[in-house]
Amino acid sequence: MQYLQPFLYFVKKPKTGPTNVLIGCLGPLIPIVGEMVLLGYRAEVSEELERDPDLKDHPDLKLDKLMVYLQRGVGPWLARLVFAMIFVWPALALAVGAGFGAHELISEPLFGFAVGAFVFLLMMLVGMTILWPMEYHAQVTKTFSPIKELAFAYRFARVCWFSTFVAVLMFNMLSGVLNLIGLLLLYIGLYPAYVIQQMAEQHIMTQLYLLYLEEGGEPIELPESIKERRRDDVFEEEEDQPKKRARRVEPEQQ
Question: Which of 11, 17, 181, 222 gives a 20 to 30 Å CA spacing to 196?
Fold first, then answer.
């Protein structure tokens, strides 16, 4: 698993990386719709990353494809919403209960608060470990099907739950550092930090899905329309592959 590259590949794309970040900064300014658009774009990024051995190639964020991104982002956004409604409130109740229990145990408010905060953060990490496969399934299939998404999350957890949990932990730690840098830049830096985190999350999710497949996991069943489009994309990519291989081999020969 790579943890630093996910935070760098999007910005470091030659010529268009900074521009993509600036366009992505419009997302947080538009509630709900902006998030949907970024989720839809992230889905297209995953398709390219899966086919690139270096996990770097990805399409540019284009303003003329906003409706395409929006349509594709509805499913994963609904998956997030439903999961939050089902998981967050019970997690919060458990954290509050643990905090009060710790307070009653030693009659120390700060200790009770610390225990409650720790339990809540732990539950959020567990929640993201479950949510990521659900969200990825919705992105890949372009649909919103809670039953299928939960079933895939269960299969995913059986194969690589520990790797997913570690990846979630590392992602949140590095995101915290990035947010701190954004705060130091007079809060303006929080907007590009948000975009970079979104793309880093997608990169790590893609890595985890490839790891899941390597470990013998069952691939996501795609609708026939998506299968046909992917076959066309693969055919076009095979025509360009000699050029890509030449670019990668040439520096080694030198």
Answer: 222
Domain interval for residue 116:
5-221
Give the total number of structural domains in the chain. Answer: 1
From first to last of its 254 residues, the chain has per-residue pLDDT tens of 999 999 999 999 999 999 999 999 998 899 899 999 999 999 999 999 999 999 999 999 999 999 999 999 999 999 999 888 888 888 989 999 988 888 788 877 888 889 889 999 999 999 999 999 999 999 998 888 889 999 999 999 999 999 999 999 999 999 999 999 999 887 888 999 999 999 999 999 999 999 999 999 999 987 766 666 665 555 555 555 554 443 333 334 43
pTM score of the predicted model? 0.85
Residue 241 lies inside a defined structural domain of this protein: no
List b or e across 50-80, with b for residues whose CB sees 16 or more CB atoms inside 10 angstroms. Answer: eeeeebeebeebeeebbeebbebbbbbbbbb
